[in-house]
Amino acid sequence: MEPLDRSTIWPYRDGRPGDFYYQRFAHPTGAEAERVLGELDGGEALLFPSGSAAITALVLAELEPGRTIALAEGAYYGTGELFHLLEGWGLRFVEFDQTGPPPAGADLVWLEAPSNPFLTMPNLEAAAAHPGRVVVDSTAATPVYLRPLEHGADYALHSATKYLGGHDDLLLGAVVCRDQDAAARLRELRGRTGMVAPPDSAWLLLRSLKTLRARVERQSATASELAGRLQAHGTVDRVRYPGFGGMLSFDVRGDASRVERSLRTIANATSLGGVDSVLESRRRWEGDRVPENLLRLSVGLEDADELWADLEQALSKA
Ligand code: PLP
To answer: What are phi and psi of 175, to 5 degrees?
Structure first.
């Protein structure tokens, strides 16, 4: 493994700063994690201390007051809440159906692949034809299933807290840029604002990226199997699953809160993308934006039959 270097300063060479001189601007563990992630997504990667910090930095680097973001309807609710907060600084945002073309006049088109927790996929071709810059939050797809820059997006964005980290033990975000000038602008903003990912988390990410493909392919196979079984279950109304990845959501006929509290193997917890399965009702966070009995399941690496047995017994309590 790449050594973990927690230094905040490195000596100048012959009186001149080298690649690393002050941790806020760059550090070797972060640079190595960015190199690996950049290769996976086919662009220039920059790490941030969380997915939300990555979103904030990208919006601040891209837009001035008065500019408009077109956000995919049903995307991670925290992204909409964050844009709402940034309206106080003069940004505007509108929501649109990402399965169709983005609205005219938007300066930045914000897609999510697939959306969390509605699991819709964006129309990448329609977005690429739009004059605005295009961001794809591909947290749930991961570079294993989607490389947005190859589909005309300007940026791929990740909450690396999820699948990239994969073990529920690190909080990180990443923006992968197609254009080097855009990456330089973002790097400057990151250094000046100090939105810097810590070396410890970057090191954990490097560890995790070695197993990314193996983890998400297995999670995807299990999620696909469970989506089919849930669809056929009498207590389940509707299953949302895009056909790949480890996240799905479904509506329960009955009391979803009783189902989540009856689980034994699957943890009743938030987040997604870890090696341990988690399930929660999203109503507690998102209010009436989601159906009352919508449950989101993030499938881990447990045995599919073991997970199904737990879901079946919990569904019987609905
Ligand atoms: N994007 C998506 C799709 C998410 O699901 C999340 C978190 O749930 C975020 C961004 C924000 O990431 P973080 O929690 O690392 O700030």
So the answer is: -120, 130
Q: Kindly state the average pLDDT of the residues 6-30.
A: 98
pLDDT tens for residues 111-153?
999 999 999 999 999 999 999 999 999 999 999 999 999 999 9
- The DSSP string of 130-166 is SSSEEEEE-TTTHHHH--GGGGT-SEEEEETTTTTT-
Cα 97 → chain centroid: 19
Report whether residue 142 contacts ligand 1, using a CB cutoff of 6 Å.
no
Asked if 209 and 202 count as a contact pair (C-beta separation under 8 A), the reply is no
Q: Ligand 1: does its nearest atom lie under 6 Å from the Cβ of 244?
A: no
Smallest CA separation from ligand 1 atom 6, residue: 159
Cβ–ligand 1 distance for 159 under 6 Å, the answer yes
267-290 confidence digits (pLDDT tens): 999 999 999 999 999 999 999 999
- For residue 264, the 8-state DSSP code is S
pTM equals: 0.98
- 50 in ligand 1 pocket by Cβ < 6 Å? yes
Q: What's the angle, vertex CA 296, arms to CA 292 and CA 297, rounded to 5?
A: 150
Domains with residue ranges and CATH for the chain: 28-210 (3.40.640.10), 213-315 (3.90.1150.10)
Ligand 1 atom showing the smallest separation from residue 172 Cα = 15
Q: Which stretch of DSSP H or E encloses residue 95?
A: strand 92-96
Pairing status of strand 92-96 against strand 68-72 = parallel
